[in-house]
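Protocol step 4 of 5: obtain the predicted structure for the target chain.
Materials: sequence only (see below). No template structures provided, no constraints applied. The aim of this step is simply to have a reference model before the mutagenesis design in step 5. Sequence pasted as it appears in the construct record:
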Amino acid sequence: MEQKKNILTYEGLQALEEELQDLKVNKRQEIAQKIKEAREQGDLSENAEYDAAKDEQRDIESRIEEIEKILKNAEVFDEDTMDSETVTFGCNVHVKEMHTGKEMHFKLVGSTEADILNGKISNESPLGAALLGKKKGSIVSVEAPKGRFDYKILDLTR
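Step 4 output (structure tokens):
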């Protein structure tokens, strides 16, 4: 079975590579020092610091494995080759929800990079998928659990 490709922007790829480097070089050394210091305190069976350090070590190793898996199946999207008139992966999009008039700005990214709190929505999300291929001025409809929402594309930039 073929692994799903992780579509990333160049910035997303760089951020993951930097995080991986930090985890491998800095965090591993920090946690090894914490474990060493906890061991020196004696009885490990009742040593909360040792248990906490080992839990942190497991979390770090798990995150390293997760990032390596993402990078192994990564496909970097070349934003420079895309049409600047239509919404594509990597676009910054300015939309207005037609019923409320609320305006939103976000960047359309892959599911690996999606972070709604930082203005990044996935191309696989209902809104992201509806916007793909549309032009400035288009109105798109999105079905959601709370009903149907219509959005007008006010602007898009690379």
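Step 4 remarks: The longest strand covers residues 147-157. The chain has a mean pLDDT of 88.
Proceed to step 5.
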